[in-house]
Give the backbone structure.
Amino acid sequence: MKEINKKLYRKLDVWQESINFAFTIFKLCKKFPKEERFGFSSQLKRAAHSIPSNISEGASRKTKKDFCYFLYVAQGSCSEIETSLELARKLEWISEEEKNKLDEKTIKISKMLTGLIRSLK
């Protein structure tokens, strides 16, 4: 299979969107209780960081099939974030409005990942 351009990911809308989303999540976590800094907050930040990281790591692989695998992992991180945001809302660390706005962004990124996967197959 043809090798993909290893720096392509920086031009991808989904990578740029996920970088901005990760930044938003990191800022949000500053609002969480201090005792959750190494637990809940850390896990949520890792999941948010995982999305653009998996996009870039996948792009550095030799085949489109390998790239797709990492895009699927990024989608898994989107699901993990949705679950974490629901729990954060139930714990009253974020408002329903904040959760809904972040859910919209997560869904948008997941759909963009799906589109990219389809285009690679």
The mean pLDDT is 91. The radius of gyration is 15 Å.
